[in-house]
Recover the amino acids of this structure.
């Protein structure tokens, strides 16, 4: 059975302004300064698992040209252009209805486009195991990231007893916890970060969506029959795959997890980018041609500038793209939406 | 007798990097964000005193195209391209030898290209008085700026008794003083900043240079006879007009001054630019599309960027031009040469 990969690439990455903008968001940026954008790195890590012609990208219609440019190997018909963002359940449903048309036995991996994995070999090993497990079963495997800290920014899966090899049953999905609860999860050892990466057979997904979200399944059937994406897709409920399918499926004992440790990060904010980039001895992490004097713990991303000289900054974000510059304290990064929309002095 | 203006525009403005670079220095930049560059403002303030065809610019040969672009009214033959910088005495000598060829009765004002004058009407009044005084006399008038603070960054002229109207005798030129001496000067009241603006008849200058710097006069005569600027000009001694001519002429009682108060600044550093720009209520002065949050006492010049957002900066310089960005503490501005030539982290 052939493997297919569905990449969800509709996010706008507003927390990385001005690096990421609604016109050119994070997943299309070389945020690590490694020469590859996040979506390109996402494709790269499925090398050997999925042939180029079996990739699918679901994105907003305004990003279609960027996707074609950055992933030239993808068939144009595999770029699914959402006329409006409807969260992950309709996004995954559409892709799987399309895959089901061409190969009703396909194995499918669904992945975000904007996370990083520092150990792709281990990622491929886990993905291979998950595909082996789901190819013969009516089951979904979610990758459960072994937590390294009591993170309050992620959802968790509560792992239960072992099914086979590394595969554990998922007893429940847990929403973003408070710090106390996150500490308890870390201590308990059987709570894993929900990375939003799912593996299942296409028939399984379609069946789960029919069972747990029949309204969305109905819209998908009509879209498949009429091709009227613009009219029908926006009618879907805005709902995540976790709420729509995973939670009820877990309650029915049909969701499994493989605990994974492949250097995953969702790169959700400057803090996590700072952690993933290399640091100088003063804790500065820079992408771009940057010279620092008496600077500590800064994170700098300004590849568009020819040269950046910074002096006397402790704990700042410095970011530039397309003529927009942000300098702010790292402690204030949750205000970046305010800064990006703010008034001029 | 016709008035001529000689604009000295050979400086490299290294203290304003990256705004000012050796390829495009300060005098050619709209540093005040008013729509006119410093050299254009210099031309503007002689409106009514000097007709466009009587301006002369002495500059480095690499800036000739910029001068032609910024002052299209100037005759091309009036742009004197120095093959090498030789300080102000050879620069002024060359211009005056040229003016002497076309009009041996000309009255001449010599001025830097990179200072600002906030009250051009008063400037013109003083210049008119100086030209009246020197047109019939073998004398030089230097503008003496009434000091507003005990500045240690400027040379001073020591004014003596009144000659006529506002014109005083200059008893001596004084080099940049220590702070204690500068305070004494301010207290005494008869010490004025030497703005480097001189008014004299062309025959007077030529005569003074022949008298006090015969070596330079000899090179000028040979240049006039042969046209061999490239070979001869660099042979001139590197010396300022103050040392070469003003000091000995003052000792001979041939230098005069008009105390002036027309909002002059040499814009020699970011501190003086910060003073001349308008401030917001937090003491920030900005040229460019700048939004500030919790910023105080910053000076920002980044017209090339579409948008700048700054947060949490107190007392910083933020400057960008042509893809080069500097963020540094204002207290460290004397290190800008180090920053501009520094190594990359």
């Amino acid at each position: 059975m052939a493997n297919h990969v569905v990449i969800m690439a509709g996010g706008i990455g507003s927390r990385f302004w001005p690096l990421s903008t609604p016109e050119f968001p994070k997943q299309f940026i070389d945020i690590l300064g490694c020469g590859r954008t996040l979506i390109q790195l996402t494709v790269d890590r499925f090398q050997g698992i999925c042939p180029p012609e079996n990739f699918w990208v679901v994105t907003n219609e305004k990003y279609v040209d960027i996707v074609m440019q950055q992933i030239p190997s993808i068939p144009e018909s595999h770029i699914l252009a959402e006329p409006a963002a409807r969260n992950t359940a309709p996004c995954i449903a559409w892709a799987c209805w399309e895959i089901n048309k061409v190969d009703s036995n396909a194995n499918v991996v669904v992945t975000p486009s904007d996370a990083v994995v520092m150990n792709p070999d281990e990622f491929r090993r886990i993905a291979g195991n998950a595909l082996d497990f789901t190819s013969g079963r009516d089951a979904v495997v979610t990758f459960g990231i072994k937590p390294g800290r009591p993170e309050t920014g992620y959802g968790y899966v509560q792992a239960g007893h072992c099914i086979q090899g590394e595969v554990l049953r998922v007893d429940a999905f847990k929403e973003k916890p408070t710090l106390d609860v996150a500490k308890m999860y870390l201590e308990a050892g059987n709570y894993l970060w929900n990375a939003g990466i799912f593996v299942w057979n296409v028939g399984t997904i379609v069946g789960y969506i029919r069972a747990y979200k029949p309204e969305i399944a109905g819209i998908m059937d009509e879209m498949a029959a009429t091709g009227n994406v613009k009219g029908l897709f926006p009618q879907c409920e805005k709902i995540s795959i976790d709420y729509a399918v995973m939670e009820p499926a877990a309650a029915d004992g049909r969701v499994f997890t493989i605990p994974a440790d492949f250097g995953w990060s969702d790169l959700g904010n400057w803090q996590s980018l700072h952690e993933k980039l290399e640091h100088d001895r003063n804790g500065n992490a820079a992408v771009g041609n940057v010279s620092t004097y008496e600077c500590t713990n800064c994170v700098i991303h300004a590849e568009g500038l020819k040269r950046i000289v910074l002096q006397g900054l402790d704990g700042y974000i410095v970011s530039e793209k397309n003529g927009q510059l942000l300098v702010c304290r790292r402690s204030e990064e949750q205000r970046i939406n305010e800064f990006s929309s703010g008034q001029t002095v």
Notes: The two ends of chain B are 60 Å apart (CA to CA). The mean pLDDT of chain B is 95. Chain B has eleven helices and 17 strands.
